[in-house]
Amino acid sequence: MTWNKIRPYLMISPAILVFSLFFIYPICYMIYLSMHDWNFVSPEKNFVGTANFTNLVSEKEFIEVMQNTFVYTALTVSLTIIIALILAVWLNKSGTIYGFVQGAIFSPHIISLVSISMLWMWLMDTDYGLLNWFLNLFGLPSVPWLTDPSTSLLSLAIVAIWKGIGFNTLIFIAGLQSIPRDIYEAAALDGTNRIRTFIKLTLPMLSPTLFFLTIIGIINSFQVFETISIMTQGGPINSTNTFVYYIYEYGFRFFKIGYASAAGVILLVIISIFTIMYFRLLARRVHYQ
Amino acid sequence: MAEIILKNISKKFKEEEVVKNLNVTIRDGSFTVLVGPSGCGKSTTLRMIAGLEQQSSGDIWIGDECVNDLPPGKRNIAMVFQNYALYPTMTVRGNIEFGLKNKKVPKKEREILIREISEIVGLTDYLDKKPNKLSGGQRQRVALARAMVKKPKVFILDEPLSNLDAKLRSQMRSELIQLHKKLGTTFVYVTHDQVEAMSMGDEIAILNKGTIQQMGSPMNVYHEPNNIFTAEFIGTPAMNIFEYNKVKDHLSNLSRKVKFVGFRPEHALLALTEKEKDAGYLKLASEIITMETLGAETIYTVKNEAGVMHIKSFIPPFENAKELLVSIPYEKLYFFDQEGKRYRSVSTRQMDTALAGGA
């Protein structure tokens, strides 16, 4: 009898073990470290309590990092979704040209972010970049894409949008195709114009897709790292420093592990909130057939 | 209310012609059923009337207006779809009033209309529910209400009952007939089910391979089929049809054009032995294969020299019999030529004399 009780636990124990080792343990260790002062090499870790957290939130640099991350996320997610939705509605047809465009805009998704960063650094170069060359061609002044604090974050957002659109469009197209055609026929017989059909039928029917992409987009852009690390290193003047890059710098360049872990814990909390929201709201608000 | 006229309508999907030069007049106020096997073009025809499909050639008239270039919303047609096609994100009320809102009907008027219609179809208690909370029958009613509330000139129904279970289907069938009587609007109804066609339509158009085989009242197409297709398609069990050659001994001297002979299962008389030598019957000694007793009637599947045939009988079943004598009155026989067309110039008198020498 006891065997029957033990067996299920035994069966899932390998999975639990792996999960604990690679997920639970690092998280716990990070929380543990966030309450200590440690430089990565010294044998002793000094317990400092919540000092790391209070220092973090009172520091101007960290507040900027938070702001940057939020602005970057808002820009990236909203623009990616709007542009992808428009593209999806346009591309949701059969035909060689549509298939080609779909494939073309999806291709950035499979290219490594490092290559993309190198490519865009070249495109956005203030003096020799292709973008400014185009602007000059039309008599417009050069834009200091990555070198000016007022445009640098937006420039990084453009790269993220460029990379994300293909994937988002593809998911939107899948969503559009799952909407039964006869609903549109019924709407046509009801004399519905195209804009009203889109707002009253397509958008509500797409709400699960829309919601999924929004949350995934938010979680992803909160974790932006590669482009910043390669293109701007958080600069100029801290204008592109975001959460993960900040954690990286403090942890692995300044070796303030406790401090970096504290920032990591805050990021964990923020992302957890979005994740919980995702699953909670998904069950309730969003329409499913 | 309006008459629908299809003039030389053809529809091609790429190379395949699914509707071939169709000419049909659907009477104003009629309940016309387009019936045929799947792929016969009935749904395509319906969708062309609705404007969801553009005909490759020909003209469609609704009332005294040629609607070739009118979008579906402007044709004053309401359609009930096979899968209901309700708007899943809207409540029942939202579904019903969507078309009215498009037409900018004022709120007060909308409410009166919705109350009126939902009472007719019995949905008053469900107005604030979403379609996914409703049963199949209720969804069907919402679809009907949504169609009715527009007060269209023509109702179009595309296999609306095929997703319902048998009991609900027969209930909705009679409700639709009543609804048609009440509204008096032209109904065009598509189905592959000949029982539905027979029971509901006051006019039936039988389609096969994109052409109309026959059009007429249910009784007319049942008793006077123009060809083998119609004869076999309408009626359960289907009409028994066999080659004339196989019964030539019993039925000699018929025209050489006659290639097939048929009779309705219920027209045959059954007996264990031949009682008397009465003329005027085609008599076939048959072996019983199966016997289905349905209470009021019994359906026998029998085998004889002409082949396998079904007989419907209303007399008490022959419980232990292995063999039967099937007698079909001459006047109940149907004759068809090589192409399956009805061959009508065989009179019973002709057969009587023919038989005198034959049997």
UniProtKB/TrEMBL annotation, chain A:
Q: Which UniProt keywords apply?
A: Cell membrane, Membrane, Transmembrane, Transmembrane helix, Transport
Which segments cross the bilayer? 12-32, 70-91, 97-123, 153-176, 197-219, 257-279
Boundaries of every ABC transmembrane type-1 domain copy: 66-278
Q: Which SUPFAM superfamilies match?
A: MetI-like
User: Where can this protein be found?
Assistant: Cell membrane
Q: Which Pfam families match?
A: BPD_transp_1
Per UniProt, what is the membrane topology?
Multi-pass membrane protein
Q: Which Gene3D superfamilies match?
A: MetI-like
- UniProt family annotation: Belongs to the binding-protein-dependent transport system permease family.
Q: Which PANTHER family match?
A: ABC TRANSPORTER PERMEASE PROTEIN, INNER MEMBRANE ABC TRANSPORTER PERMEASE PROTEIN YCJO
Listed name of the protein: Sn-glycerol 3-phosphate transport system permease protein
